[in-house]
Pentacotripeptide-repeat region of PRORP domain-containing protein
Amino acid sequence: MIHALPKCSTTNLLKHSLPRTLHSYFSLTLTFPFHSSSPHGPQPHPSAKIFKSGTKMGSYKLGDLSFYSLIQNHASALDFGSLEEVLDQMKRERRAFVEKNFIVMFKAYGKAHLPEKAVDLFFRMGGEFQCKQTVKSFNSVLNVVIQEGLFNRALEFYSHVVASKSFNIHSNALTFNLVIKAMCRLGLVDQAIEVFREIPLRNCAPDAYTYSTLMHGLCQEGRIDEAVSLLDEMQVEGTFPNPVAFNVLISALCKNGDLARAAKLVDNMFLKGCVPNEVTYNALVHGLCLKGKLEKAVSMLNKMVMSKCVPNDVTFGTLINGFVKQGRASDGARVLVSLEERGRRGNEYVYSSLISGLCKEGKFNHAMRLWKEMVGKGCKPNTVVYSALIDGLCREGKLDEARDILSEMKSKGYLPNSFTYSSLMRGYFEAGISHKAILVWKEMATDNCNHNEVCYSILINGLCKDGKIVEALMVWKQMLSRGIKLDVVAYSSMIHGLCNANLMEQGVKLFNQMLCQGPEVQPDVITYNIILNAFCMHNNISRAIDILNIMLDQGCDPDFITCDVFLKTLRENVNPPQDGREFLDELVVRLVKKQRTIGASKIIEVMLHKFLLPKASTWAMIVKQLCKPKSVRKVISECWSKLSY
């Protein structure tokens, strides 16, 4: 029941009811909300204190607007206890509850990461507070749940409310956008498309956000062509594409390596009056770096600047990481200098990438200079940077210094991760100090750092190389009992250890187990070389040939070590000795017939190094494969693109 007020406003009513000094204070507290910095949590708003003590100062009643002000203040402070008190007081005084009060509270629950509280309050609105829910409050709660990443819960909430006749809520465009977003995040793209097609039937029209969300979902599923078609449909239906829609597609095409189509979309953006922004350029730079076209990526950065689009940390980080992955960390460091010349500072992720890359390239002194420069400029190193430095020190064999850095890292409150410890373990094993590597393993457990598959692989590999096959088998069994995923490195290390310990059959048994695993744990060229070498060392060439046939059938190409293993065996263990020319020639022919030209080229390279000339027919076959018209055109195109820069 709403209490009728006199024609005068609430403020005028208070002027007549309160002393002048109290009225002045009351006005101030409403105009300038007080936010307490008390360490004991949110303090009651000053106006709330006045309301509670009002009976001693004169008779008055709060206006609905004042209650709304209180709700806003308590919601802003995330003081949910006081919010419930206000709601209780409003119920006692039979005040009218309006939807905007609840929407403010829903947003507060979202900010506090309490989505279930928002859902509960939504269901309380109609019964307890006699306030009818509309699509506005429904969308507000739905958005809170989705923002927390609870996509299944959001769809469940949506289905329950829409199906219930007691709510009688009709979805609008925003509702459909939120539902499509939740479905796409769950990978339910086909269901999202069904909802999308239903929108016009519900007297709604999809907007640019709807299209962008669905495009993103399709791209995440690798259905880029469908997403591009949706852009065309969007324009036909009269919905003007915004930069977000274009960026979704450009980013997906760049990640897929289709830079030509991405460039056409950028041209289309300009034609539609959409100006490429930093997201567009970052996607293009990322795509060029993935393709290894670093010079073009630098040119794109310059074009970005000329277009008055300011590169951000993502732009420079992507470019620097691209150089590092190509083994050009020094060039990446020059990009960092360029970044600083533009008045920006490299962050810890950029430094960690460069330090790690320089260490892997053996440029440890440069990495250390960069470390000191980073610390000197006030950029605090994080776990990633510390771990990169420790890894570099271990690669240089400076294990005592690596241990000192680990101690410094811990003392400054940065927790070492599995990579940090595994680098130190590998360093100790390579230095032949296996007991210290095992101590690091135990230290991980003390520091509550989980032993992952990489750590187990390093431990097994180190123990096997140290000849401690019994201990390695114990670790292997522990790995199996704990459900740790076995990777190629663990298998290869264990097989190598068993073969070196003259336990060939056990090694072959593990090898056969690998062949029965999924594609991610199939033997690689290192695994095959271990088995091939073991059979050849035991003068069992026929079984080695069988393994080689399996290798070729499984799509794994031989490398230089494979060739050396067989060449040595043919020279030393065959009577009469053979130089291996016919063997390698036949291997080249088999690879060419399987259309594995790169693998065949590597064998040819080995033959030339060993002065074992291939047959004329083999030469003709390999040259014909290498000089296919499409391959030649591709090489010519790459040359022209390089000359243009």
